[in-house]
Design brief:
By secondary structure, the chain is of the alpha/beta class. It is about 30% helix and about 25% strand. The structure holds adenosine-5'-diphosphate. Belongs to the carbohydrate kinase PfkB family. Ribokinase subfamily.
C-alpha cells in the first residue's frame, strides 16, 4: 500500500481576454473547477495503476466534493481530515493567447499535523511505501515516522524548495525530480546528484525520458521517452511518479517501474486536463501492445 501525504486543491480555471493588470477588474469568459494538487494527482495515478493508496491530507468543508471524487477514483480517503481552513485552491487565469497566471492558497493543506499522520501510519507495515511532495505541512515529521517504521520513503521534490529538500534528504530511499528541480537542488547544496545520501534518484527529462542514478552501485542510466505528439504536458510528472511508486510498492524492479511510469506519462501528454484524465493500467497496457 502507498501512503501518500499530499495536497488536495480545487483548480479554479478562468478564461480571460488578457492577464489581469494591477487595479483592474476583469470578467472571465468561462469558468471550470477541477481536482488538482500534486498530492491528489499522484494518489489518483497510484489508484489508476491498480495499487492501493491511502491519502493523508486535509480539506475544508468546501472540499467534500474533492474527497468524493478521490473516493470515486479508488483512493482510500479515511485519513483525509476536515479542518476549519478553506480547501487549498489555485486560481488559474488563462488568457486568449494561452499565457497563464496562477495564484495558490495552500489553506487546509498546511493544517496537516504530526498526530494526524501518526494515526494514518498505524496501519502501515515495512512492506508499504510513504510518498510525499512539497505542498503540505509536517513533511519532516511524516518522513521521520515512515522511516522509523521501515517503510520505503519516496519524495517528489516539487515545487522545489531548498530547505524542504535538505530537511528530508537523510530519510529518503528515493527522490524524484524533473530536470529543473534537479538543477536547483545541485545548485542549492553544492554537490552533484551522485553524492546525495539517497539510494535511488530519478530525474525526469520530459520528451527526453528519464535518468536513474543508483548511488549504491554508481549506475547512471538514461531511458528514452515513448515517442508521442504532446498536446498538454500538465500532470505528466505527477502521473509518472504515481505509476512509478505504485509499481515499486508492488515489488517491481526499478527498470520495469520506470518503463510503466514512462508509458503512463506519454499517454498523459496526449490528453488535455489533469487528475480526471490520468490513464488507467488498461490504457497503458493496450498502448504497449499497439
Ligand atoms: P514534469 O511534468 O514534472 O516537468 P516531465 O515533463 O519531465 O515532468 O515529464 C515526466 C515524464 O512524462 C517523463 O519522464 C516522460 O516519461 C513523460 N513525458 C513528458 N513529456 C513527454 C513527451 N513530450 N513525450 C513523451 N513522454 C513525455
Amino acid at each position: 500500500t502507498v501512503f501518500n501525504l499530499g495536497s488536495i486543491n480545487a483548480d479554479l480555471f478562468y478564461d480571460v481576454p488578457h492577464l489581469i493588470a494591477p487595479g483592474e477588474t476583469l470578467a472571465a469568459t468561462r469558468h471550470f473547477r477541477g481536482l488538482g494538487g500534486k498530492g491528489a494527482n499522484m494518489s489518483v495515478a497510484v489508484a489508476r495503476a491498480a495499487s492501493r493508496v491511502v491519502h493523508i491530507g486535509a480539506v475544508g468543508a468546501d472540499g467534500r466534493w474533492a474527497v468524493d471524487r478521490l473516493l470515486e477514483y479508488g483512493v482510500d480517503t479515511r485519513h483525509i481530515v476536515e479542518v476549519d481552513d478553506p480547501t487549498g485552491h489555485a486560481i488559474i487565469m488563462v488568457a486568449s493567447d494561452g499565457e497563464n497566471a496562477i495564484l495558490i492558497h495552500p489553506g487546509a493543506n498546511h493544517a496537516v499535523t504530526e498526530t494526524h499522520i501518526a494515526d494514518a501510519l498505524t496501519e502501515a507495515t515495512e512492506a508499504d511505501t510513504f510518498l510525499f511532495q512539497n505542498e503540505i505541512s509536517s513533511q519532516v515529521a511524516g518522513a521521520t515516522q515512515a522511516s522509523a517504521r521501515g517503510m520505503r520513503v519516496v519524495y517528489a521534490a516539487a515545487p522545489f524548495d531548498a530547505q524542504a529538500v535538505k530537511a528530508v534528504l537523510p530519510l529518503l530511499d528515493a527522490l524524484v525530480m524533473n530536470e529543473v528541480e534537479a538543477r536547483q537542488l545541485s545548485d542549492a547544496i553544492g554537490v552533484s546528484l551522485t553524492d546525495l545520501p539517497v539510494r535511488d534518484i530519478i530525474v525526469t527529462l520530459g520528451a527526453d525520458g528519464c535518468r536513474w542514478l543508483n548511488t549504491d552501485t554508481g549506475e547512471d542510466q538514461t531511458f528514452p521517452a515513448i515517442p508521442v505528439t504532446p498536446v498538454d504536458t500538465t500532470g505528466a510528472g505527477d502521473t509518472f511518479t504515481g505509476y512509478l511508486v505504485a509499481a515499486l510498492d508492488r515489488g517491481m524492479p526499478m527498470e520495469q517501474a520506470i518503463s510503466l511510469g514512462q508509458q503512463a506519462g506519454a499517454i498523459m501528454v496526449t490528453r488535455h486536463g489533469t487528475a480526471d484524465v490520468i490513464p488507467d493500467l488498461k490504457d497503458v497496457q493496450d498502448a504497449r501492445l499497439g
